[in-house]
Amino acid sequence: MEQHIYKGKLTQFHRLKIAKKEELTKNTFSVEFEIPHHLKKNFAFEAGQFVSIKFQAGSTEVINDYSMTSAPYEEKIALGIKVNSPRGAALQLFENYREGDELWVSEPSGRFTLIAKPSEFRTIVGFAAGIGITPILSHFKNILYNEPRTRLFLFSGIKIRMN
Predict the structure, then answer these.
(1) Which of 17, 100, 109, 134 has a 20 to 30 Å separation from 155 between CA atoms?
(2) Where is the FAD-binding FR-type domain (predicted)?
């Protein structure tokens, strides 16, 4: 475990093994981390939260936040990551780290959460664009799993470049 003062608060980082890495589109990929049994409580989370990853991008140590696409019932940490620049840290993460490698991952954080209401009838409408869909995926999976009476509608937009 390592502790860092990150964004003004003491943050706990643990080394987690990359269990799966998959290219989703030309500029997005997903990463799943294996959570050892002794760290399961540290990585319990609510839908909509994020983790920070600390890694080397060239000669620079980088800490970036990434929203989880996994839902709490899945008992894993899965992230959706967008590559914004050919020189950016996300591309370094994609190109230089493989399944089986370990990275420093913070314990989950963030307040973009919803209160579960499994006994109520409710309708939820979600709006997302681009990589901003990642926390919404976490929420929707969690709601579908835990709230059989809830109806969900998702409006999503993506940018496509035509050459």
Answers:
(1) 109
(2) 11-115
